[in-house]
Amino acid sequence: MSAAHPGRPFILGLTGSIGMGKSTVATMLRELGVPVFDADAAVHQLQGPDGPLLPEIEAAFPGTTGPEGVRRAELGAQVFGNPEALKRLEAIVHPAVARLRNAFLIEHAGQPLIVFDIPLLFEKGHGAGLDAVAVVSAPPEQQRHRVLGRPGMTAEKFAQILALQVPDADKRARADFVVDTGVSLDQTRQAVGNLVEQIREKNRR
Question: C-alpha distances in angstroms, 59 versus 1, 115, 116?
Answer without folding.
Answer: 43, 33, 30
